[in-house]
UniProtKB/TrEMBL annotation:
One Pfam family from the record: ClpS
Signal peptide interval: none
Gene symbol of the encoding locus: clpS
HAMAP family to which the protein is assigned, alphabetical: ClpS
GO biological process, one term: proteolysis
Organism: Venatoribacter cucullus
Listed name of the protein: ATP-dependent Clp protease adapter protein ClpS
UniProt cross-references to InterPro entries, sorted A to Z: ClpS, ClpS_core, Ribosomal_bL12_C/ClpS-like
Length: 119
């Protein structure tokens, strides 16, 4: 038994030990551990944007190596679309908006969109 008079913590601990909490809610809150929803940035094909421009965008905005960027660009070119990267929603929205604005500024029709991803 501590020498000092009982603190709130002493009372709480002994109440947890012996069930004498008088019906008070003494459980500590469960930590929030939910993972954030993830979104893929998907690049769309078009007939006009130069391949070199797409590769430059993939390197500059998505930190791809020249080899990775070329592979993704060719996947878009041949299949119509491909995932550039997966992020939380705010980051995915920002990346897509930045790429779309840059392409527009450069007068290319290149477009990205975001789609929910189960990653
Ligand atoms: N299809 C374009 C061309 O032939 C190249 C291209 C690739 C455009 C990927 C957009 O997201 C894209 N010049």
């Amino acid at each position: 038994m501590p020498q000092h008079s009982k603190t709130q913590l002493d009372l709480q601990n002994s109440a947890e030990d012996n069930g004498q909490d008088g019906g008070l809610a003494l459980d500590t809150a469960k930590p929030e551990l939910k993972r954030p929803s993830m979104y893929a940035v998907v690049m769309l094909n078009d007939d006009y944007t130069p391949m070199e421009f797409v590769v430059e965008v993939l390197q500059g905005y998505f930190a791809k190596t020249p080899e990775q960027a070329t592979r993704i660009m060719l996947a878009v070119h041949h299949e119509g679309s491909a995932v550039c990267a997966v992020y939380t929603r705010d980051i995915a929205e920002t990346k897509a908006a930045l790429v779309n604005q840059y392409a527009r500024d450069c007068q290319h029709p290149l477009t990205c969109e975001i789609v929910p991803s189960e990653d």
